[in-house]
Design goal:
The chain is built from 16 helices and eleven strands. By secondary structure, it is of the alpha/beta class. The chain folds into three domains: 66 residues, no CATH class; 256 residues, Type I PLP-dependent aspartate aminotransferase-like (Major domain) (Aspartate Aminotransferase, domain 2, 3-Layer(aba) Sandwich); 103 residues, Alpha-Beta Complex (Aspartate Aminotransferase, domain 1), CATH 3.90.1150.10. The strands form two sheets. It has a seven-stranded mixed sheet, sandwiched between helices. The chain starts with a helix and ends with a helix. It comes from Streptosporangium becharense. GO terms for molecular function: aromatic-L-amino-acid decarboxylase activity; diaminobutyrate decarboxylase activity; pyridoxal phosphate binding.
Length: 462
C-alpha cells in the first residue's frame, strides 16, 4: 500500500521543483533546451544506479528531479519558438497529477464514470464550436496522428463498409495536398490503402489547396480506376501555419459526394477567437475534424479530439467483438470509437483549463499568440536581410535571413541556448520557422531574436 505521508512529502518536493522550473523558464534565465548526448544525461541522472539499487528518498528524488528538468526542453521559456507543443497551463498539469494517482482508464464507463462524463461534456462543447451541434459524435485520443487515423477509419467505413471484415478494396484513394501532415500518409499505409493511394492535390506556391483544380484531381483519380475515400484540407498547415479554403473545398466535396476531412490539429483553436474564427469558415461542412488540445488549448500532451458531423459515422469506424469488454450500455462506453482501451483521463485536462480560464480566456490566448507571430512578421520586414514569403495567419512564421545555409544558422542559434527554432521547406527552399507557443514570448524576445540572427550569420560568413 501507499505510504501516504511519504507521498505527501514527495508531492511537496515535486510542486516546489516544478514551480521553480516554470518560474525560471518564464523569466528566460536558463537555456531553452538541453543538448547533452544520452550517455552524459544518463550519467548525470544516475539512471543505472537507481535502476539497479532503488532506494530513492525524498532528498534523492529532489536532486534527481532538479537534474531531470534541467536536461529537458523548457516550453514556458520566451525563447521557445520550436515545435507545436503547448506551454501547459497549470490546471492541465493538475489533471495529469490526478490521473497519475487515480488511474481511471475510462474508455469503459465503469472504469471511470466521472472521467468519461467529463470527456463527453468537453466533446459536446467542441462539437458545438465546430458547428456539428447535436448530430455529431466525438472521442479524445492520445495525439493528432491517432486522431487522423481514427477519422480516416470512419471515412473508410463509409466508403467500404465491409473493409473491416473482408479487407480493404484496392481502388480507394486519399486526396491530400503535399503540405498535409505526415500522419495522413502514414494512416493511409496503416489502413491498408498504401502510400501510392495518396493522390496529391494541386496547390499554390505556399502549399494551399487550389480549389479551382479540384475537378481535375477528381478526374485523375477516376481515370486511374480509383474512388476517393476522403479529401483532406489543412487548418492550418504544419509547416506554414496557413489555412486552406475550407468553404470552397467543403462545397466541392458535398457536390461530388466525397468525404471531407479537416486536419485542424493546430489551427482549430482559432474557433475560440472572434478575430480569427473566419479562418475556419466552412468547417461545419466537414465530415470529420481533428483538434489537438495539447497545442493551442494549453494542455500537456497528448490530447486530441476526433469529431464527426454525424455520430453514426464514428461508431462505424470500428467493428469489434470482445465479450470481456463490449457489453456495456451503448452511449456510455467510448471503447467502440477508439483504438485505445486503457485511455487516460484526457478530458479532465481540457475541462480544468476551461474551468479556470473559460472559453474566453483560451480564445484570448490564441489571439495573443497569433498577434505575436504577426508582430514578428512586421518587425522582420523592416530589417535588412530578412525575407518572409507570406503574411502569417496563425502563430507560425517562416522566414529566411540572407542566402546562406538556414539549417546551419538554426543549429548555431540552438547551440547558444537562448532560442529554439525549427525549419521547413517552402517550394523546395529551406526556411527558418518559428511557432509562438509560450505566453512569455513578447516584443523583447522578437527583437532579441532579430538582433541575434544577423550576428551569428555574419560571424560564420553565412
Amino acid at each position: 500500500m501507499w505510504n501516504v505521508e511519504e507521498f505527501v512529502r514527495a508531492a511537496g518536493v515535486t510542486v516546489d521543483e516544478l514551480a521553480a522550473y516554470v518560474d525560471g523558464s518564464q523569466r528566460g534565465v536558463p537555456p531553452v533546451l538541453g543538448r547533452r548526448p544520452p550517455r552524459e544525461v544518463a550519467e548525470r541522472l544516475g539512471l543505472a544506479r537507481w535502476i539497479r539499487d532503488g532506494g530513492m528518498t525524498e532528498e534523492g528524488y529532489r536532486e534527481f528531479l532538479r537534474a531531470y528538468l534541467a536536461e529537458g526542453t523548457r516550453q514556458h521559456h520566451p525563447g521557445y519558438l520550436g515545435h507545436q507543443i503547448a506551454a501547459p497551463d497549470f490546471p492541465a498539469a493538475l489533471a495529469d497529477f490526478v490521473h497519475g494517482a487515480a488511474n481511471n482508464p475510462m474508455a469503459i464507463y465503469e472504469m471511470g464514470a466521472s472521467a468519461a462524463t467529463v470527456e463527453s461534456e468537453v466533446l459536446r462543447w467542441m462539437l458545438g464550436r465546430a458547428g456539428f451541434g447535436e448530430t455529431g459524435g466525438g472521442v479524445l485520443t492520445h495525439g493528432g496522428s491517432l486522431a487522423n487515423l481514427t477519422a480516416l477509419l470512419a471515412a473508410r467505413a463509409a466508403a467500404a463498409p465491409d473493409a473491416w471484415t473482408d479487407g480493404v478494396p484496392g481502388d480507394l484513394a486519399l486526396l491530400a495536398p503535399a503540405s498535409a501532415h505526415y500522419s495522413l500518409t502514414r494512416a493511409a499505409a496503416v489502413l491498408g490503402l498504401g502510400e501510392r493511394a495518396v493522390v496529391p492535390l494541386d496547390a499554390d506556391g505556399l502549399g494551399r489547396i487550389d480549389v479551382t483544380r479540384l475537378p481535375d484531381a477528381l478526374e485523375r483519380v477516376r481515370r486511374a480506376g480509383r474512388r476517393p475515400m476522403a479529401l483532406v484540407a489543412n487548418a492550418c498547415a504544419t509547416a506554414t501555419g496557413l489555412y486552406d479554403d475550407l468553404r470552397g473545398v467543403g462545397e466541392f466535396c458535398a457536390a461530388h459526394g466525397v468525404w471531407f476531412h479537416v486536419d485542424g490539429a493546430h489551427g482549430a483553436s482559432a474557433l475560440l477567437s472572434p478575430a480569427h474564427r473566419h479562418l475556419l469558415d466552412g468547417v461545419e461542412l466537414a465530415d470529420s475534424l481533428i483538434w489537438d488540445a495539447h497545442k493551442m488549448l494549453r494542455t500537456s500532451g497528448p490530447a486530441a479530439a476526433v469529431l464527426t458531423r454525424r455520430e453514426g459515422d464514428l461508431d462505424a469506424a470500428f467493428r469489434q467483438r470482445a465479450s470481456y469488454l463490449f457489453y456495456g450500455e451503448p452511449g456510455l462506453d467510448l471503447i467502440g470509437r477508439t483504438v485505445e482501451c486503457s485511455k487516460a483521463e484526457l478530458g479532465l485536462k481540457i475541462f480544468l483549463n476551461l474551468a479556470w480560464r473559460g472559453e474566453r480566456g483560451l480564445g484570448e490566448y490564441v489571439a495573443r499568440q497569433y498577434a505575436t507571430a504577426h508582430r514578428f512578421w512586421e518587425l522582420a520586414r523592416e530589417r535588412p536581410g530578412f525575407a518572409c514569403p507570406y503574411e502569417p495567419e496563425s502563430n507560425i512564421v517562416c522566414f529566411r535571413y540572407g542566402d546562406g545555409d538556414q539549417a546551419a544558422l538554426r543549429e548555431r542559434l540552438t547551440e547558444e541556448g537562448a532560442f529554439h527554432l525549427t525549419s521547413a521547406e517552402i517550394g523546395g527552399v529551406r526556411h527558418l520557422r518559428m511557432t509562438v507557443m509560450a505566453p512569455a514570448t513578447d516584443d523583447g524576445t522578437l527583437k532579441a531574436l532579430l538582433d541575434r540572427i544577423p550576428d551569428l550569420a555574419d560571424r560564420s560568413g553565412g
